[in-house]
Amino acid sequence: MDLGPYLFLASLEGAVTAAVLALTAVGLSLVFGVMRVVNVAHGEFFMLGAVLAWWVASLAGGHPAIGFALAVLVAPVIAGAIAAAADFIVLKRLDYDPENTIVATIGILYIIQQTVLMTYGPDARPVEAPFSYRIYFPWFGYSAYKLFVIAAAVAILLGVWAIMARTRIGLVLRATQLDRETAQAFGIPVERVYALVFGLGAGLAALAAVLIVPIQQAHYLMGGDPLLLSFIVVIIGGLGSLSGTVVAAIIIGMSDGIISVFFTPTLAKIIATLLVAFILVFRPTGLFGTRSA
Amino acid sequence: MNNKSKSLALHGGVIAALFALQFVLPAYHHGNLARIMVLACYAMGYNVLFGYSGLLSLGHAMFFAAGMYGMALTIQHLGFPPSAALLTGIAAAFVVSAVVGFLALRTTGVAFMIVTLMFAQAFYLAILNLGEYTRGDEGFVIQQADRIMAGVDLSDASNRYFAALILFSVCMAVTLRLVHAPAGRILVAIRENEERARMLGYDIFRHKLAAVVISGTLSGLAGAGYGLLFGYAGASFATVQYSIFPLLWVLLGGAGTVLGPLVGTLFMFYLIDLSSGLTSAYMLIAGAVLVLLTLFARQGLVGEIRRRFAPWLP
CA A18 to CA A24: how far, in whole Å? Predict the structure, then answer.
Protein backbone atom coordinates (compact mmCIF):
# COMPACT_ATOMS: atom_id res chain seq x y z
CA MET A 1 0.00 0.00 0.00
CA ASP A 2 1.07 3.60 -0.58
CA LEU A 3 1.49 5.96 2.33
CA GLY A 4 -1.82 7.70 1.66
CA PRO A 5 -4.14 4.72 2.15
CA TYR A 6 -1.95 3.52 4.98
CA LEU A 7 -2.39 6.81 6.83
CA PHE A 8 -6.12 6.67 6.04
CA LEU A 9 -6.35 3.25 7.66
CA ALA A 10 -4.29 4.42 10.65
CA SER A 11 -6.55 7.44 11.16
CA LEU A 12 -9.68 5.26 10.92
CA GLU A 13 -8.27 3.00 13.64
CA GLY A 14 -7.24 6.10 15.58
CA ALA A 15 -10.77 7.48 15.31
CA VAL A 16 -12.21 4.28 16.80
CA THR A 17 -9.75 4.50 19.70
CA ALA A 18 -10.52 8.19 20.14
CA ALA A 19 -14.29 7.57 20.15
CA VAL A 20 -14.16 4.93 22.88
CA LEU A 21 -11.59 6.89 24.84
CA ALA A 22 -13.68 10.05 24.70
CA LEU A 23 -16.69 8.24 26.18
CA THR A 24 -14.64 6.67 28.97
CA ALA A 25 -12.75 9.86 29.78
CA VAL A 26 -15.87 12.03 29.77
CA GLY A 27 -17.24 9.72 32.46
CA LEU A 28 -14.13 10.26 34.58
CA SER A 29 -14.11 13.97 33.85
CA LEU A 30 -17.77 14.34 34.81
CA VAL A 31 -17.14 12.72 38.19
CA PHE A 32 -14.09 14.85 38.80
CA GLY A 33 -15.79 18.02 37.63
CA VAL A 34 -18.94 17.74 39.71
CA MET A 35 -17.71 15.80 42.75
CA ARG A 36 -14.02 16.79 42.71
CA VAL A 37 -12.94 13.26 43.47
CA VAL A 38 -10.73 10.96 41.42
CA ASN A 39 -12.34 7.61 40.77
CA VAL A 40 -9.47 5.12 40.50
CA ALA A 41 -12.00 2.31 39.98
CA HIS A 42 -13.19 3.90 36.73
CA GLY A 43 -11.37 1.33 34.59
CA GLU A 44 -13.13 -1.47 36.46
CA PHE A 45 -16.54 -0.07 35.53
CA PHE A 46 -15.32 -0.17 31.93
CA MET A 47 -14.34 -3.80 32.40
CA LEU A 48 -17.65 -4.50 34.11
CA GLY A 49 -19.45 -3.13 31.05
CA ALA A 50 -17.58 -5.52 28.75
CA VAL A 51 -18.12 -8.54 30.99
CA LEU A 52 -21.82 -7.73 31.46
CA ALA A 53 -22.15 -7.34 27.69
CA TRP A 54 -20.73 -10.83 27.21
CA TRP A 55 -23.07 -12.17 29.88
CA VAL A 56 -26.18 -10.52 28.40
CA ALA A 57 -25.24 -11.53 24.86
CA SER A 58 -24.66 -15.16 25.85
CA LEU A 59 -27.99 -15.27 27.71
CA ALA A 60 -29.94 -13.70 24.86
CA GLY A 61 -28.92 -16.08 22.09
CA GLY A 62 -30.50 -15.73 18.66
CA HIS A 63 -29.17 -13.13 16.26
CA PRO A 64 -26.08 -11.32 17.62
CA ALA A 65 -27.82 -7.97 17.12
CA ILE A 66 -30.44 -8.86 19.76
CA GLY A 67 -27.81 -9.65 22.39
CA PHE A 68 -25.86 -6.53 21.51
CA ALA A 69 -28.90 -4.27 21.70
CA LEU A 70 -29.84 -5.73 25.07
CA ALA A 71 -26.25 -5.29 26.28
CA VAL A 72 -26.25 -1.64 25.27
CA LEU A 73 -29.36 -1.12 27.38
CA VAL A 74 -28.58 -3.36 30.35
CA ALA A 75 -24.80 -3.28 30.96
CA PRO A 76 -24.41 0.48 31.55
CA VAL A 77 -27.44 0.51 33.84
CA ILE A 78 -26.10 -2.32 36.01
CA ALA A 79 -22.59 -0.85 36.12
CA GLY A 80 -24.05 2.56 36.94
CA ALA A 81 -26.23 1.10 39.68
CA ILE A 82 -23.21 -0.64 41.24
CA ALA A 83 -21.28 2.64 41.11
CA ALA A 84 -24.16 4.60 42.64
CA ALA A 85 -24.39 1.99 45.40
CA ALA A 86 -20.62 2.27 46.03
CA ASP A 87 -21.02 6.03 46.25
CA PHE A 88 -23.90 5.70 48.67
CA ILE A 89 -22.31 3.04 50.88
CA VAL A 90 -18.69 4.21 50.87
CA LEU A 91 -17.84 7.58 49.38
CA LYS A 92 -20.69 9.48 51.01
CA ARG A 93 -19.49 8.42 54.44
CA LEU A 94 -15.99 9.63 53.65
CA ASP A 95 -17.51 13.02 53.02
CA TYR A 96 -15.76 12.96 49.61
CA ASP A 97 -12.41 13.76 51.19
CA PRO A 98 -10.18 13.63 48.06
CA GLU A 99 -7.37 11.47 49.45
CA ASN A 100 -9.57 9.03 51.37
CA THR A 101 -11.72 8.68 48.27
CA ILE A 102 -8.70 7.63 46.23
CA VAL A 103 -7.76 4.99 48.80
CA ALA A 104 -11.34 3.75 48.98
CA THR A 105 -11.73 3.59 45.19
CA ILE A 106 -8.49 1.59 45.01
CA GLY A 107 -10.21 -0.83 47.36
CA ILE A 108 -13.34 -0.83 45.19
CA LEU A 109 -11.12 -1.46 42.15
CA TYR A 110 -9.78 -4.67 43.69
CA ILE A 111 -13.19 -5.75 44.95
CA ILE A 112 -14.77 -5.45 41.49
CA GLN A 113 -11.82 -6.90 39.62
CA GLN A 114 -11.39 -9.89 41.90
CA THR A 115 -15.11 -10.58 42.12
CA VAL A 116 -15.17 -10.75 38.32
CA LEU A 117 -12.15 -13.06 38.43
CA MET A 118 -14.01 -15.36 40.83
CA THR A 119 -17.26 -15.43 38.88
CA TYR A 120 -16.37 -14.82 35.25
CA GLY A 121 -12.94 -16.39 35.36
CA PRO A 122 -9.55 -15.52 33.90
CA ASP A 123 -10.44 -16.14 30.21
CA ALA A 124 -10.84 -13.51 27.53
CA ARG A 125 -14.18 -13.97 25.78
CA PRO A 126 -15.45 -12.38 22.57
CA VAL A 127 -18.85 -10.87 21.90
CA GLU A 128 -20.13 -11.15 18.36
CA ALA A 129 -20.62 -7.86 16.50
CA PRO A 130 -24.29 -7.05 15.78
CA PHE A 131 -23.54 -7.01 12.06
CA SER A 132 -20.56 -8.15 10.03
CA TYR A 133 -20.93 -5.89 7.03
CA ARG A 134 -17.74 -4.66 5.38
CA ILE A 135 -17.31 -1.41 3.50
CA TYR A 136 -14.97 -1.60 0.52
CA PHE A 137 -12.72 1.34 -0.11
CA PRO A 138 -10.60 1.30 -3.28
CA TRP A 139 -7.60 0.04 -1.27
CA PHE A 140 -9.01 -2.16 1.48
CA GLY A 141 -12.20 -3.37 3.10
CA TYR A 142 -13.11 -2.00 6.49
CA SER A 143 -15.48 -3.25 9.16
CA ALA A 144 -18.67 -1.19 9.09
CA TYR A 145 -19.11 -1.95 12.77
CA LYS A 146 -16.03 0.13 13.61
CA LEU A 147 -17.53 3.08 11.74
CA PHE A 148 -20.74 2.47 13.69
CA VAL A 149 -18.74 2.72 16.93
CA ILE A 150 -17.47 6.16 15.90
CA ALA A 151 -20.96 7.35 14.97
CA ALA A 152 -22.47 5.97 18.17
CA ALA A 153 -19.83 7.63 20.34
CA VAL A 154 -20.43 10.97 18.65
CA ALA A 155 -24.18 10.59 19.17
CA ILE A 156 -23.76 9.69 22.85
CA LEU A 157 -21.37 12.59 23.45
CA LEU A 158 -23.85 14.96 21.82
CA GLY A 159 -26.49 13.48 24.11
CA VAL A 160 -24.32 14.14 27.18
CA TRP A 161 -23.75 17.67 25.97
CA ALA A 162 -27.47 18.19 25.43
CA ILE A 163 -28.26 16.89 28.92
CA MET A 164 -25.63 19.11 30.52
CA ALA A 165 -26.52 22.23 28.55
CA ARG A 166 -30.23 21.98 27.85
CA THR A 167 -32.04 20.06 30.56
CA ARG A 168 -33.02 20.70 34.15
CA ILE A 169 -30.84 17.81 35.35
CA GLY A 170 -27.89 19.39 33.59
CA LEU A 171 -28.63 22.68 35.27
CA VAL A 172 -28.68 20.96 38.66
CA LEU A 173 -25.38 19.22 37.88
CA ARG A 174 -23.73 22.44 36.81
CA ALA A 175 -25.02 24.26 39.87
CA THR A 176 -23.61 21.54 42.13
CA GLN A 177 -20.30 21.69 40.28
CA LEU A 178 -20.04 25.46 40.71
CA ASP A 179 -20.85 25.61 44.39
CA ARG A 180 -21.96 22.64 46.46
CA GLU A 181 -23.09 24.61 49.52
CA THR A 182 -25.12 27.18 47.64
CA ALA A 183 -26.72 24.45 45.56
CA GLN A 184 -27.74 22.67 48.74
CA ALA A 185 -29.10 25.91 50.16
CA PHE A 186 -31.29 26.23 47.08
CA GLY A 187 -32.81 22.84 47.78
CA ILE A 188 -30.78 20.67 45.43
CA PRO A 189 -30.41 17.19 46.94
CA VAL A 190 -26.62 17.18 46.60
CA GLU A 191 -26.19 13.65 47.93
CA ARG A 192 -28.53 12.22 45.32
CA VAL A 193 -26.88 14.33 42.62
CA TYR A 194 -23.51 12.86 43.60
CA ALA A 195 -24.79 9.30 43.47
CA LEU A 196 -26.34 10.06 40.06
CA VAL A 197 -23.11 11.57 38.71
CA PHE A 198 -20.99 8.71 40.00
CA GLY A 199 -23.39 6.24 38.40
CA LEU A 200 -23.53 8.24 35.18
CA GLY A 201 -19.72 8.37 34.94
CA ALA A 202 -19.45 4.62 35.45
CA GLY A 203 -22.31 4.04 33.01
CA LEU A 204 -20.50 5.99 30.28
CA ALA A 205 -17.38 3.87 30.81
CA ALA A 206 -19.48 0.71 30.67
CA LEU A 207 -21.21 1.90 27.49
CA ALA A 208 -17.83 2.55 25.88
CA ALA A 209 -16.81 -0.99 26.79
CA VAL A 210 -20.00 -2.47 25.30
CA LEU A 211 -19.20 -0.70 22.05
CA ILE A 212 -15.59 -1.92 21.98
CA VAL A 213 -16.16 -5.50 23.14
CA PRO A 214 -17.00 -6.90 19.67
CA ILE A 215 -13.57 -5.59 18.56
CA GLN A 216 -11.59 -6.45 21.68
CA GLN A 217 -12.41 -9.28 24.06
CA ALA A 218 -13.81 -9.09 27.58
CA HIS A 219 -11.19 -9.87 30.23
CA TYR A 220 -11.04 -9.15 33.95
CA LEU A 221 -7.80 -7.16 33.67
CA MET A 222 -8.90 -5.02 30.71
CA GLY A 223 -9.63 -1.99 32.94
CA GLY A 224 -6.01 -0.92 33.42
CA ASP A 225 -5.29 0.69 30.06
CA PRO A 226 -8.56 2.64 29.77
CA LEU A 227 -8.00 4.00 33.28
CA LEU A 228 -4.49 5.15 32.45
CA LEU A 229 -5.52 6.65 29.11
CA SER A 230 -8.56 8.35 30.63
CA PHE A 231 -6.34 9.87 33.28
CA ILE A 232 -4.01 11.16 30.59
CA VAL A 233 -6.89 12.57 28.57
CA VAL A 234 -8.61 14.20 31.54
CA ILE A 235 -5.38 15.80 32.73
CA ILE A 236 -4.33 17.04 29.33
CA GLY A 237 -7.83 18.28 28.60
CA GLY A 238 -7.94 20.20 31.86
CA LEU A 239 -9.45 18.76 35.01
CA GLY A 240 -13.20 19.15 35.05
CA SER A 241 -13.56 20.53 31.54
CA LEU A 242 -15.78 18.24 29.44
CA SER A 243 -15.03 19.88 26.08
CA GLY A 244 -11.31 19.84 26.85
CA THR A 245 -11.61 16.13 27.63
CA VAL A 246 -13.20 15.39 24.25
CA VAL A 247 -10.56 17.41 22.38
CA ALA A 248 -7.76 15.67 24.28
CA ALA A 249 -9.31 12.25 23.62
CA ILE A 250 -9.31 12.94 19.90
CA ILE A 251 -5.69 14.14 19.99
CA ILE A 252 -4.51 11.17 22.08
CA GLY A 253 -6.58 8.59 20.22
CA MET A 254 -5.53 9.77 16.77
CA SER A 255 -1.87 10.17 17.71
CA ASP A 256 -1.87 6.78 19.44
CA GLY A 257 -1.78 5.01 16.10
CA ILE A 258 0.88 7.34 14.72
CA ILE A 259 3.12 7.12 17.81
CA SER A 260 2.99 3.34 17.73
CA VAL A 261 4.17 3.45 14.10
CA PHE A 262 7.44 5.02 15.26
CA PHE A 263 7.91 3.47 18.71
CA THR A 264 7.25 0.12 20.33
CA PRO A 265 3.98 0.08 22.34
CA THR A 266 5.86 -0.02 25.67
CA LEU A 267 8.05 2.93 24.73
CA ALA A 268 4.96 4.82 23.55
CA LYS A 269 3.33 4.20 26.95
CA ILE A 270 6.46 5.34 28.80
CA ILE A 271 6.47 8.58 26.81
CA ALA A 272 2.76 9.11 27.44
CA THR A 273 2.96 8.52 31.22
CA LEU A 274 6.01 10.74 31.61
CA LEU A 275 4.24 13.41 29.56
CA VAL A 276 1.29 13.36 31.96
CA ALA A 277 3.56 13.51 35.00
CA PHE A 278 5.43 16.49 33.61
CA ILE A 279 2.27 18.30 32.51
CA LEU A 280 0.93 17.95 36.05
CA VAL A 281 4.23 19.09 37.54
CA PHE A 282 4.62 22.16 35.40
CA ARG A 283 1.00 22.96 34.48
CA PRO A 284 -1.21 21.60 37.26
CA THR A 285 -4.36 22.91 35.55
CA GLY A 286 -3.82 20.80 32.42
CA LEU A 287 -3.37 22.22 28.97
CA PHE A 288 -6.85 23.69 28.57
CA GLY A 289 -8.05 23.82 32.17
CA THR A 290 -8.32 26.68 34.59
CA ARG A 291 -8.62 24.83 37.89
CA SER A 292 -5.91 22.81 39.60
CA ALA A 293 -6.33 19.33 41.02
CA MET B 1 9.82 6.19 83.37
CA ASN B 2 9.55 9.08 80.99
CA ASN B 3 8.04 8.68 77.55
CA LYS B 4 11.33 8.32 75.72
CA SER B 5 12.66 5.48 77.88
CA LYS B 6 9.25 3.79 77.76
CA SER B 7 9.39 3.89 73.99
CA LEU B 8 12.98 2.60 73.90
CA ALA B 9 12.03 -0.25 76.23
CA LEU B 10 9.02 -1.17 74.08
CA HIS B 11 10.87 -1.16 70.77
CA GLY B 12 13.88 -2.93 72.22
CA GLY B 13 11.45 -5.49 73.61
CA VAL B 14 9.89 -6.01 70.15
CA ILE B 15 13.30 -6.68 68.62
CA ALA B 16 14.21 -9.05 71.45
CA ALA B 17 10.90 -10.89 70.96
CA LEU B 18 11.54 -11.19 67.21
CA PHE B 19 15.02 -12.51 68.02
CA ALA B 20 13.62 -15.08 70.43
CA LEU B 21 10.84 -16.19 68.05
CA GLN B 22 13.29 -17.75 65.58
CA PHE B 23 14.06 -20.53 68.04
CA VAL B 24 10.46 -21.59 68.56
CA LEU B 25 8.75 -21.02 65.20
CA PRO B 26 8.17 -23.93 62.82
CA ALA B 27 10.06 -23.65 59.51
CA TYR B 28 7.16 -22.30 57.46
CA HIS B 29 6.37 -19.41 59.80
CA HIS B 30 10.07 -18.84 60.40
CA GLY B 31 10.48 -18.14 56.67
CA ASN B 32 7.35 -16.01 56.60
CA LEU B 33 8.48 -13.86 59.49
CA ALA B 34 11.83 -13.15 57.78
CA ARG B 35 9.86 -12.01 54.73
CA ILE B 36 7.48 -9.94 56.87
CA MET B 37 10.37 -8.16 58.61
CA VAL B 38 11.88 -7.10 55.29
CA LEU B 39 8.49 -6.00 53.95
CA ALA B 40 7.88 -4.13 57.23
CA CYS B 41 11.06 -2.14 56.42
CA TYR B 42 9.36 -1.13 53.19
CA ALA B 43 6.23 -0.17 55.13
CA MET B 44 8.29 1.81 57.64
CA GLY B 45 9.90 3.69 54.78
CA TYR B 46 6.46 4.44 53.38
CA ASN B 47 5.26 5.49 56.80
CA VAL B 48 7.93 8.22 57.05
CA LEU B 49 6.29 9.95 54.11
CA PHE B 50 2.64 9.01 54.56
CA GLY B 51 2.30 8.72 58.32
CA TYR B 52 4.60 11.45 59.56
CA SER B 53 4.65 13.92 56.66
CA GLY B 54 1.09 13.40 55.42
CA LEU B 55 2.11 12.91 51.78
CA LEU B 56 0.26 10.06 50.08
CA SER B 57 2.43 8.52 47.39
CA LEU B 58 1.10 5.95 44.94
CA GLY B 59 4.52 5.26 43.48
CA HIS B 60 6.67 3.73 46.17
CA ALA B 61 7.14 0.51 44.22
CA MET B 62 9.48 2.61 42.10
CA PHE B 63 11.82 3.13 45.07
CA PHE B 64 11.51 -0.48 46.21
CA ALA B 65 12.34 -1.66 42.70
CA ALA B 66 15.15 0.88 42.31
CA GLY B 67 16.83 -0.65 45.36
CA MET B 68 16.12 -4.18 44.19
CA TYR B 69 17.39 -3.68 40.64
CA GLY B 70 20.27 -1.44 41.71
CA MET B 71 21.42 -4.39 43.76
CA ALA B 72 20.47 -7.27 41.44
CA LEU B 73 21.64 -5.81 38.12
CA THR B 74 25.11 -4.98 39.44
CA ILE B 75 25.49 -8.52 40.75
CA GLN B 76 24.16 -10.04 37.56
CA HIS B 77 25.94 -7.95 34.95
CA LEU B 78 28.90 -6.31 36.67
CA GLY B 79 29.84 -9.08 39.08
CA PHE B 80 29.66 -6.87 42.18
CA PRO B 81 30.03 -8.57 45.58
CA PRO B 82 26.75 -8.47 47.58
CA SER B 83 27.84 -5.76 50.02
CA ALA B 84 28.82 -3.38 47.21
CA ALA B 85 25.63 -4.32 45.32
CA LEU B 86 23.54 -3.55 48.40
CA LEU B 87 25.14 -0.10 48.61
CA THR B 88 24.49 0.46 44.89
CA GLY B 89 20.85 -0.45 45.45
CA ILE B 90 20.55 2.06 48.28
CA ALA B 91 22.31 4.70 46.18
CA ALA B 92 19.96 4.03 43.26
CA ALA B 93 16.90 4.48 45.49
CA PHE B 94 18.44 7.66 46.95
CA VAL B 95 18.95 9.19 43.50
CA VAL B 96 15.54 8.13 42.16
CA SER B 97 13.72 9.45 45.23
CA ALA B 98 15.64 12.74 45.14
CA VAL B 99 14.79 13.34 41.48
CA VAL B 100 11.16 12.23 41.77
CA GLY B 101 10.73 14.13 45.02
CA PHE B 102 12.15 17.30 43.52
CA LEU B 103 9.66 17.13 40.64
CA ALA B 104 6.60 15.69 42.36
CA LEU B 105 6.73 18.05 45.35
CA ARG B 106 5.87 20.93 43.07
CA THR B 107 2.34 19.50 43.29
CA THR B 108 0.15 18.77 46.30
CA GLY B 109 -2.78 16.55 47.25
CA VAL B 110 -4.40 14.57 44.47
CA ALA B 111 -1.93 15.81 41.85
CA PHE B 112 0.95 14.50 43.99
CA MET B 113 -0.68 11.08 44.08
CA ILE B 114 -1.18 11.01 40.32
CA VAL B 115 2.32 12.29 39.54
CA THR B 116 3.96 9.65 41.75
CA LEU B 117 1.70 7.02 40.21
CA MET B 118 2.69 8.10 36.69
CA PHE B 119 6.43 8.18 37.45
CA ALA B 120 6.19 4.72 38.99
CA GLN B 121 4.27 3.44 35.98
CA ALA B 122 6.94 4.84 33.63
CA PHE B 123 9.61 3.18 35.81
CA TYR B 124 7.81 -0.15 35.64
CA LEU B 125 7.39 0.11 31.86
CA ALA B 126 11.07 1.03 31.56
CA ILE B 127 11.99 -2.18 33.40
CA LEU B 128 9.85 -4.11 30.92
CA ASN B 129 11.35 -2.22 28.01
CA LEU B 130 14.90 -3.04 29.14
CA GLY B 131 13.96 -6.72 29.18
CA GLU B 132 17.33 -7.61 27.70
CA TYR B 133 18.96 -6.83 31.07
CA THR B 134 16.06 -7.10 33.52
CA ARG B 135 14.27 -10.07 31.91
CA GLY B 136 11.01 -8.16 32.41
CA ASP B 137 8.08 -9.84 34.11
CA GLU B 138 9.87 -13.14 34.32
CA GLY B 139 12.71 -11.63 36.36
CA PHE B 140 15.88 -13.48 37.25
CA VAL B 141 17.25 -15.51 40.11
CA ILE B 142 20.30 -14.32 42.03
CA GLN B 143 22.52 -17.38 42.35
CA GLN B 144 23.34 -18.71 45.78
CA ALA B 145 27.07 -18.18 45.11
CA ASP B 146 26.40 -14.44 44.69
CA ARG B 147 24.57 -14.17 47.99
CA ILE B 148 27.44 -14.88 50.37
CA MET B 149 28.10 -11.66 52.22
CA ALA B 150 31.27 -11.48 54.35
CA GLY B 151 31.37 -15.25 54.54
CA VAL B 152 27.71 -15.56 55.60
CA ASP B 153 25.45 -17.48 53.22
CA LEU B 154 22.24 -15.42 53.08
CA SER B 155 20.28 -18.22 51.41
CA ASP B 156 20.47 -20.25 54.63
CA ALA B 157 17.21 -19.92 56.59
CA SER B 158 18.61 -18.89 59.98
CA ASN B 159 21.21 -16.52 58.50
CA ARG B 160 18.43 -15.02 56.45
CA TYR B 161 16.23 -14.52 59.49
CA PHE B 162 19.07 -12.86 61.32
CA ALA B 163 19.88 -10.58 58.38
CA ALA B 164 16.21 -9.63 58.11
CA LEU B 165 16.14 -8.82 61.81
CA ILE B 166 19.22 -6.59 61.46
CA LEU B 167 17.63 -4.81 58.50
CA PHE B 168 14.42 -4.37 60.46
CA SER B 169 16.26 -3.03 63.52
CA VAL B 170 18.16 -0.53 61.38
CA CYS B 171 14.95 0.77 59.79
CA MET B 172 13.22 0.97 63.15
CA ALA B 173 16.17 2.82 64.67
CA VAL B 174 16.19 5.31 61.79
CA THR B 175 12.43 5.90 62.14
CA LEU B 176 12.64 6.28 65.93
CA ARG B 177 15.58 8.62 65.66
CA LEU B 178 13.73 10.71 63.09
CA VAL B 179 10.53 10.81 65.12
CA HIS B 180 12.32 12.00 68.25
CA ALA B 181 14.48 14.52 66.37
CA PRO B 182 13.34 18.12 65.78
CA ALA B 183 13.21 17.43 62.02
CA GLY B 184 10.59 14.74 62.65
CA ARG B 185 8.48 17.14 64.71
CA ILE B 186 8.62 19.65 61.88
CA LEU B 187 7.34 16.98 59.47
CA VAL B 188 4.38 16.34 61.78
CA ALA B 189 3.81 20.08 61.97
CA ILE B 190 3.72 20.24 58.18
CA ARG B 191 1.28 17.32 58.09
CA GLU B 192 -1.03 18.97 60.60
CA ASN B 193 -0.97 22.47 59.11
CA GLU B 194 1.36 23.31 56.29
CA GLU B 195 0.56 27.02 56.18
CA ARG B 196 1.20 27.44 59.89
CA ALA B 197 4.54 25.61 59.65
CA ARG B 198 5.49 27.86 56.75
CA MET B 199 4.51 30.93 58.71
CA LEU B 200 6.69 29.80 61.60
CA GLY B 201 9.59 30.06 59.21
CA TYR B 202 10.29 26.44 58.28
CA ASP B 203 11.42 25.66 54.77
CA ILE B 204 8.55 23.37 53.78
CA PHE B 205 9.95 22.18 50.47
CA ARG B 206 13.31 21.20 51.96
CA HIS B 207 11.72 19.22 54.77
CA LYS B 208 9.29 17.46 52.46
CA LEU B 209 12.09 16.63 50.06
CA ALA B 210 14.11 15.19 52.94
CA ALA B 211 11.08 13.10 53.91
CA VAL B 212 10.70 11.76 50.35
CA VAL B 213 14.40 10.91 50.17
CA ILE B 214 14.51 9.19 53.59
CA SER B 215 11.31 7.33 52.79
CA GLY B 216 12.47 6.35 49.31
CA THR B 217 15.90 5.26 50.49
CA LEU B 218 14.46 3.09 53.27
CA SER B 219 12.09 1.55 50.72
CA GLY B 220 15.04 0.95 48.41
CA LEU B 221 16.99 -0.64 51.27
CA ALA B 222 14.03 -2.97 51.81
CA GLY B 223 13.90 -3.76 48.09
CA ALA B 224 17.61 -4.49 47.88
CA GLY B 225 17.43 -6.58 51.06
CA TYR B 226 14.42 -8.50 49.76
CA GLY B 227 16.17 -9.32 46.50
CA LEU B 228 19.36 -10.36 48.23
CA LEU B 229 17.71 -12.47 50.95
CA PHE B 230 15.18 -14.22 48.76
CA GLY B 231 17.35 -14.37 45.65
CA TYR B 232 15.00 -12.98 43.04
CA ALA B 233 14.35 -9.73 41.19
CA GLY B 234 11.31 -9.27 38.93
CA ALA B 235 9.23 -6.50 37.39
CA SER B 236 6.17 -7.52 39.43
CA PHE B 237 7.76 -5.72 42.40
CA ALA B 238 7.50 -2.46 40.45
CA THR B 239 3.77 -2.74 39.64
CA VAL B 240 1.07 -0.50 41.09
CA GLN B 241 0.10 -3.36 43.36
CA TYR B 242 3.41 -3.04 45.20
CA SER B 243 2.77 0.67 45.65
CA ILE B 244 -0.64 -0.10 47.14
CA PHE B 245 0.68 -2.74 49.55
CA PRO B 246 2.71 -0.43 51.83
CA LEU B 247 -0.22 1.99 51.92
CA LEU B 248 -2.45 -0.89 53.00
CA TRP B 249 0.00 -2.16 55.62
CA VAL B 250 0.55 1.29 57.08
CA LEU B 251 -3.15 2.15 57.13
CA LEU B 252 -3.96 -1.15 58.78
CA GLY B 253 -1.17 -0.96 61.38
CA GLY B 254 -1.56 2.74 62.05
CA ALA B 255 -0.12 5.64 60.07
CA GLY B 256 2.33 7.76 62.02
CA THR B 257 3.25 5.06 64.53
CA VAL B 258 6.63 3.34 64.61
CA LEU B 259 5.25 -0.14 65.26
CA GLY B 260 2.22 0.22 62.97
CA PRO B 261 4.00 -0.90 59.80
CA LEU B 262 5.18 -4.15 61.40
CA VAL B 263 1.76 -4.91 62.84
CA GLY B 264 0.01 -4.07 59.56
CA THR B 265 2.41 -6.12 57.45
CA LEU B 266 2.16 -9.10 59.79
CA PHE B 267 -1.63 -8.98 59.86
CA MET B 268 -2.10 -8.48 56.10
CA PHE B 269 0.55 -11.07 55.17
CA TYR B 270 -1.24 -13.79 57.08
CA LEU B 271 -4.67 -12.63 55.93
CA ILE B 272 -3.58 -12.95 52.29
CA ASP B 273 -1.66 -16.16 53.05
CA LEU B 274 -4.78 -17.77 54.51
CA SER B 275 -7.17 -16.48 51.85
CA SER B 276 -4.94 -17.43 48.92
CA GLY B 277 -5.37 -21.01 50.13
CA LEU B 278 -9.11 -20.58 49.52
CA THR B 279 -9.24 -18.58 46.30
CA SER B 280 -6.97 -17.17 43.61
CA ALA B 281 -8.75 -13.83 43.97
CA TYR B 282 -6.92 -12.98 47.19
CA MET B 283 -6.63 -9.30 46.27
CA LEU B 284 -10.36 -9.15 47.00
CA ILE B 285 -9.43 -9.28 50.69
CA ALA B 286 -6.94 -6.43 50.23
CA GLY B 287 -9.61 -4.32 48.51
CA ALA B 288 -12.22 -5.00 51.15
CA VAL B 289 -9.77 -4.21 53.96
CA LEU B 290 -8.84 -0.91 52.28
CA VAL B 291 -12.47 0.15 52.02
CA LEU B 292 -13.27 -0.92 55.59
CA LEU B 293 -10.20 0.91 56.91
CA THR B 294 -11.10 4.19 55.23
CA LEU B 295 -14.64 3.82 56.54
CA PHE B 296 -14.16 2.69 60.12
CA ALA B 297 -10.56 2.77 61.31
CA ARG B 298 -8.65 5.67 59.85
CA GLN B 299 -6.14 5.31 62.72
CA GLY B 300 -5.24 1.67 62.22
CA LEU B 301 -4.59 -0.91 64.94
CA VAL B 302 -1.64 0.70 66.72
CA GLY B 303 -3.19 4.13 66.16
CA GLU B 304 -6.31 2.99 68.04
CA ILE B 305 -4.17 1.62 70.90
CA ARG B 306 -2.35 4.95 71.07
CA ARG B 307 -5.59 6.88 71.10
CA ARG B 308 -7.18 4.82 73.84
CA PHE B 309 -4.44 3.54 76.12
CA ALA B 310 -0.98 4.84 75.36
CA PRO B 311 -0.76 8.42 74.11
CA TRP B 312 3.01 8.29 74.50
CA LEU B 313 3.52 5.81 71.64
CA PRO B 314 5.80 7.37 69.02
Answer: 10
